[in-house]
Amino acid sequence: MDDDILYEVGGGIGTITLNRPQARNALTFAMYERVAAICGDLPAHGDPKVLILTGAGEKAFAAGTDISQFRALSTPEDALAYEDRIERIITAIETCPIPTVAAIFGCRHGRRRQHRLRLRHPDRVGLGALRISHRAPSATACR
Fold first, then answer.
1. How far is residue 115's CA from residue 95's CA, in Å, rounded to a whole number?
2. For 14-41, how does the pLDDT look when each residue is reduced to its tens digit (9 = 90+)?
3. What is the Cα–Cα distance from 69 to 119, expressed in whole angstroms?
4. CA dihedral defined by 101, 106, 109, 113, rounded to 10 degrees?
5. Which helix (H) or strand (E) is 40 found in, with range?
């Protein structure tokens, strides 16, 4: 599991890489927890001044939660606990006290496919986006 999240700090920039390209970087619960731990305790993680979140491989940034994680959910209470857990993790990312950038690439549904850099700055309300258009991957590459 330690290789599913790669983390490094250099020159004040922390880079979190989701490293499951064979699963389109679908996140396991342990991966979610590691990302939240980094965002929640930056001094213990090299004290970066900016944080970048990206995905490994050429096909996808992240496919969301790995569906195999849901096998352990068998009761309504399990489902509610999952929702609480994800809310806590997303809150940790959203409240990260330094600027964060998600380098999003690869296949996605909806409008044009494009590289996108999403920026969140803790001192500003909302998100700004820098979009860099590129040639979309072929339909075969997205499968």
1. 24
2. 999 999 999 999 999 999 999 999 999 9
3. 29
4. 90
5. helix 29-40
Instruction: In whole angstroms, give the CA distance from residue 83 to residue 130.
Output: 30
pLDDT above 50 (res 102): yes
Whole-angstrom Cα distance, residue 24 to residue 11?
28
Terminal CA-CA length for the chain = 25
With tokens 């352990």, the residue in question is 72
Residue 129 near residue 47 (C-beta atoms within 8 A): no
pTM over 0.90: no
- Report how far apart, in Å, the C-alpha atoms of 79 and of each of 34, 53, 72, 83, 142 are: 21, 27, 10, 6, 30
